[in-house]
Amino acid sequence: MSSPPQKPGICDNDGSSLLQREDDKPEAVERRLKIYHRQTEPLLEFYELRNLLQRVDGSLKSDKVYGLVKGLIESLRP
After folding, report:
1. Rounded Cα gap, residues 16 and 71, in angstroms
2. Its pTM surpasses 0.70
3. C-alpha–C-alpha distance, residues 78 and 69, integer Å
4. Domain presence at residue 38
5. What range defines the domain where residue 70 resides?
6. Is residue 37 one of the residues assigned to a domain?
């Protein structure tokens, strides 16, 4: 979860200056999402129709995600 600092531009934890990266600004995120939907998302159906897509729930704990991905990779070995 994210919330604005009590003092704009100042970290609540250590008082250091906060900076926002150019690629984290709303306009940049919106641009990346448009590109994703136009260029990348169509690949999901392409690979799914060929039974080449495996989905993994990335919201699980990292060790669980790792285990699932590792298992999928190992299942591809001859």
Report:
1. 43
2. no
3. 17
4. yes
5. 22-75
6. yes
- Other Cβ atoms less than 10 A from the Cβ of 62: the count is 8
What's the total number of domains in the chain? 1
Closest CA to 18 of 8, 9, 31, 26: 9
Instruction: Count other Cβ atoms within 10 Å, centred on residue 56.
Output: 14
> So what's the pLDDT on residue 37?
97
Assigned domain for 52 exists = yes
SS3 assignment for the chain = CCCCCCCCCECCCCCCECCCCHHHCHHHHHHHHHHHHHHHHHHHHHHHHCCCCCCCCCCCCHHHHHHHHHHHHHHCCC
